[in-house]
Input
Amino acid sequence: MTLQQLKYVVAIADKGSINEAAKYLFISQPSLSNAIKDLEKEIKITIFTRTNRGIQISSEGAEFLGYARQVLQQSELLE
Output
């Protein structure tokens, strides 16, 4: 798990869309999707549920998002 992956999760949650988050982060949508899939595989939870109408954050994902925001906040303070 990297800080970059945590930033990706927060961006997706804030934008409500992987496509919009990819534009915001200036990366390709497939790269962002793969980074999130790798993270989900590593931590063994589903952060986002994907449907044909977009994405929704799972209950486990909502808890993870809270921790991700805290870690990123602490990282910014250290910098």
Notes: The chain has a mean pLDDT of 93. The helical segments are 3-15, 18-25, 29-43, 59-78. The first helix runs from residue 3 to 15. The beta strands are 48-51, 54-57.
